[in-house]
Write a structure and sequence with these properties.
313 residues; mainly alpha; Tetracycline Repressor, domain 2; 16 helices
């Protein structure tokens, strides 16, 4: 870590409240982890005892929160610089960096061991790998090294449905990897849209986001290309065993809107963006938040309806 992160770790935490420690777990990110893992668990072609299912999701959530705490510990120096993150517990001086590290490590060990005991060793191993990938591969290595940080690092956020599926089945098939790919391909356009109107944050922090290293025009092209590939994948998933008529209809509508948004972004120039304060980019980013939730929600509905002969093909 840099000197800034070391300085951040000396913050006084005597006034820290429960909410400050909970914020270390990145609850908004954790909610996405929980939801996609739940979909992976319920979409699996086996029935899971409710208690085991609850425990699986709980420990996956704890593992996701542990990753967030370790991420905030390591990134305290750049979080202090960026407007979007400077109010997080460590840079705000509410929680000591060492406490965040201890909390993250403790919760990581707890979540992995308990998930393995509650479900199976393979699920615990995948959770351990996911935490390692997010904290070490993405946070400590890629994030400050390459503009492809969010592309490769996006795999960490894409693993939860795979873990949920494995927790239920103890095995691996193509279906969880389709859910993985959906999240993996969604991540770059989602974050690049944010980076378009938050570029100064990444400039100030020295993070080599694509907007910083290659400029906004190149980023717009990348968003369009990834959105096209994402649309093909999302619609194609509708013809798999986790798809169905409801999912396919949802995918067709959402991807038409997403493609339209990416096309508008690609055609924009800097003058237009500055004039309307990146209105199109902000709208695309907001749509991206709904995009993944509604796709996974459709997969969930297909899984719930299948026992009644209404879901799937």
């Amino acid at each position: 870590m840099t000197d800034a992160s070391i300085n951040a770790s000396t913050a006084q935490s005597g006034d820290a409240e429960f909410g400050d420690y909970f914020a270390l777990l990145k609850p908004r990110v954790m909610s996405l982890v929980v939801f996609t893992a739940l979909v992976g668990l319920l979409a699996a072609p086996v029935s899971v005892h409710p208690v085991i299912g609850f425990c699986a999701i709980l420990f996956i959530a704890i593992g996701g929160g542990a990753s967030g705490a370790l991420n905030m510990w390591w990134d305290a120096d750049i979080d202090k610089v960026m407007v979007r993150t400077r109010k997080r517990p460590i840079p705000a001086g509410k929680v000591d960096g060492g406490e965040a590290l201890s909390l993250g490590l403790a919760l990581s060990g707890l979540s992995v061991i308990m998930l393995a005991l509650a479900t199976n060793i393979m699920a615990g191993a995948w959770l351990a790998f996911t935490i390692f990938f997010y904290v070490v591969v993405y946070t400590m290595w890629l994030k400050r090294l390459t503009p492809q940080n969010i592309v490769i690092g996006g795999a960490a956020g894409a693993f939860p449905p795979v873990i949920g599926w494995v927790a239920a089945t103890g095995s691996m098939t193509i279906e969880p990897w389709l859910m993985f790919a959906l999240t993996f391909m969604w991540t770059p356009p989602h974050f690049w849209a944010l980076a378009l109107f938050m570029r100064s944050d990444y400039d100030d922090a020295g993070v080599p986001m694509l907007t910083v290293t290659h400029g906004r025009p190149s980023t717009r092209k990348h968003i369009l290309v990834y959105t096209i590939l994402l649309a093909l994948l999302a619609v194609g998933t509708g013809f798999s065993s986790i798809g169905g008529a409801l999912y396919l209809a949802t995918a067709l509508v959402l991807n038409a809107l997403f493609l339209q948004g990416a096309w508008k972004i690609w055609r924009r120039d800097e003058v237009a963006c500055e004039a309307d304060n990146f209105k199109v980019e902000r709208s695309f980013f907001k749509l991206s938040l709904l995009y993944l939730f509604l796709h996974f929600g459709a997969i969930l509905f297909e899984a719930v309806l299948k026992p009644y002969g209404l879901g799937g093909w």
